[in-house]
Specification:
heterodimer, A: 60 residues, mainly alpha, 2 helices, 88% helix, rod-shaped, B: mainly alpha, 9 helices, 78% helix
């Protein structure tokens, strides 16, 4: 068995070890990506509000 | 005593800008610590003589479990400050803690279960440690539900803070559960008061991973706080200014 295979094999505990690390990675990434998207969405909302507000001003 | 000075330092505008300044540094620190901790934990730490390589689950399980309690206390303290001094920033921090803490608690429970299967022969037992950690998850979910339950987000934050403060009782119960009741769960490995019961080559990656999670928490919290600030302060002149700048930039 190559060193890489041995590493991935985790002494027979591969499914347990890699599932744990995989889940951790997914949760940690999501908790950065989702709040970032929320901020971007909030900024877009603010921009839209300003755009609408200005068009209102010119219309009236 | 007059706490008005707190309001100046807790200005949402300042904190929003501070968050943008700090997050790149926290992100870099988090990634560096994770790189160190993962190499140490997955490659360099020697295989455990009893548990084989399954013990490497410890490097995500223990930090997640530690953070599940640390974040809870942070959420409760911020909630207490929000209740007493009516600080918006404290409300926002307390709110932002809840989904993060719930994630850490979920991660601790699931990785513990995955570790328990090969080592204890079962995914789950209703013992004190596992049950009190599950109650912690329900407390987080209850706080999140309260945050969303009320139309007025400030009232929601206060309701969540009250539940968060009541639930603090659970934290010492989780910590001491392995001493107070008989359990399958092992006792504390790292303690302030005695020599750790773990080899130094296994211990260092664990401490690095805990620091990585701690840094990650600060990073993620500051990112999460930003959208909440924009929402809370949406009618403030600086937020309108930000909106105009965004609109001009499109």
């Amino acid at each position: 068995m190559s060193a890489l295979q041995a590493f991935l094999h985790m002494g027979g505990y591969a499914p347990y070890v890699w599932t744990s690390y995989g889940l951790a990675a997914v949760l940690l990434i999501f908790n950065i990506v989702l709040p970032r998207r929320a901020e971007q969405a909030a900024l877009r909302r603010l921009a839209r509000r300003e755009a609408l507000g200005e068009s209102h001003d010119t219309a009236s | 005593m007059n706490f008005a000075f707190l309001h100046k330092y807790a200005s949402l505008m300042h904190f929003y800008r501070l968050s943008h300044t700090l997050t790149p540094w926290l992100a870099a620190a988090t990634l560096a610590l994770f790189a160190w901790g993962l190499v140490g934990g997955l490659l360099l730490a020697p295989t455990d003589y009893q548990q084989g390589d399954s013990f490497r689950i410890m490097y995500v399980h223990v930090p997640a479990a530690w953070m599940s309690m640390f974040v809870y206390v942070t959420m409760a303290v911020a909630g207490g400050v929000a209740l007493i001094w009516k600080l918006k920033l404290a409300e926002i921090v307390s709110r932002a803690c809840a989904p993060l803490g719930a994630s850490f608690t979920f991660l601790a429970l699931v990785t513990g279960s995955i570790w328990g299967k090969p080592m204890w022969g079962t995914w789950w037992v209703w013992d004190a440690r596992l049950t009190s950690e599950l109650i912690l998850l329900f407390l987080y979910l209850g706080v999140i539900a309260l945050h969303g339950a009320l139309d007025d987000r400030r009232a929601g934050a206060r309701a969540g803070a009250v539940l968060a403060l009541i639930g603090v009782v659970n934290i010492p119960i989780i910590h001491f559960s392995v001493e107070w009741w008989s359990t399958l769960h092992q006792g504390a490995t790292v303690s302030k008061f005695s020599k750790p019961s773990i080899h130094i080559d296994m211990l260092i990656p664990l401490l690095v991973m805990i620091s990585a999670f701690q840094c990650y928490f600060a990073w993620s919290l500051l990112v999460r706080v930003r959208s909440e600030i924009l929402d809370y302060d949406r009618n403030a002149s600086w937020v309108r200014e930000l909106g105009r700048a965004q609109e001009a930039g499109r």
